[in-house]
Give the backbone structure.
Amino acid sequence: MTTTPAPRHRHFAALFSCLLLLLPGLAQALTRPPLPELERARALVIDGRYQLAEQYLDALVINPGLSARQRANAYYYRGYSFGVRGHYRSAAVDYQRALQYDPAHQGSLLALAQAHARGLGLQQDEAQALDLALRAARSGHAPAKLFAGAALLRQTTPDQPANLNRARYWLEQAGKAGQNTAWALLATSYRARHTADPDPQQARQLYERAINLGDRIPALSGLAHMHLNGELPDADATQAIALFEEAATRGDPQAQTTLAAIHLAVAGVPDMMDEAQTDKITPLLHDAPETLFRRAAELCTEAANAGHVPAKVQCAFVYSEGPDDLADPDLSHAFLERAARAGHLGSQLRLADLALGRAPNGEPDAIREAVNWYRAAARQGELRAQNNLAWVLATTTDASLRNPEEALAAALAAVQANPSPGYLDTLAAAYAAAGDFEQAQQVQRRALGKLSEDDELREEFQMRLSQYEQGRPWRE
């Protein structure tokens, strides 16, 4: 059936009626002074009433009565509100809009620098982050000076000293501008981790300056590490523990994690600290191993609950390997998952391996869980994860999980980085899963050629080659 359009005058009449409904609100928006509304929105953001603030700001960003500077502020406040609520892409868009109206808007420059540095709403790009922060820092923005100095310091090692003086310059400028955290970072720049010419006395003086200015936590931990590592002429393990304890009591998750490691090392757990440090500390802690484990559990739990990823890994170990009254496999697994979700590569691999180990027991979701964790680790470029992901996706008997294309991409990435016999074996399986048996045979023969004559893997590799020669993929 053909529809007949309404006469054009009806469309105009309907449009005019809609505009009449909007006129009172539009007139009010045009005549109301915008600045008090902007201040009200700002106060709501500061007060944490973000959704109500956004209602004000939605109207303000299109209010023609605002100056360019005011409009930039409105976009910045709304972007901040979006960011706090986890809407990172919307936040980044608003910060960029703020810069369109005020290219020197300091808050937006720093906010975009932080977004690029962390990959929140924008592609992670440390160079772009530093460039934006420096633009704000050069215009006098104190937090941007701190950000720029810290970013430059992260790029500085004894082998790569090019940015050391720039890092120190901006950290000193930040400290003079009232960013007291800068003094502890500046102290770190005089230690061996950042310079081939360390100055322990200068580092100590700067840490003590930070403490005197009230920024105690990072400075306490820094001084504690200097005592523990023997960096000071009067290094004292007792003083190191006292400083760590004070920082931990003040809620420093890094100090809590270090103290937990100290307790575990003295309890006899290997690889928690280096042997020389353990020898210094052991005579100072006289508790039984069970007591040391329990103290470590208290410390790592508090740090983990504050979001510290290494503490989550530490807690997973403590609740798995601790004494009987402390052991809790479910809690250990929960901490491991928390670390993995935070991007900890070792935890992702561990969870994938554990899930794959459950698969032969008939748990239907175990392989899917293993695939998800291997995939997460593979995205970080971890070769074993790429290889294992490819193997599972190519060889699983579960057709709903099998993915030859993804398996082939992951296997190729692993082989390109390391053409080992095992990785070639996986690549051959991926080609076979994709139906390319000629390539599968060629790659499998390459894998066999890398094995010695008495290698126990030869028989297994030969079995798979026979399968491919018969035009059959490998399944397990």
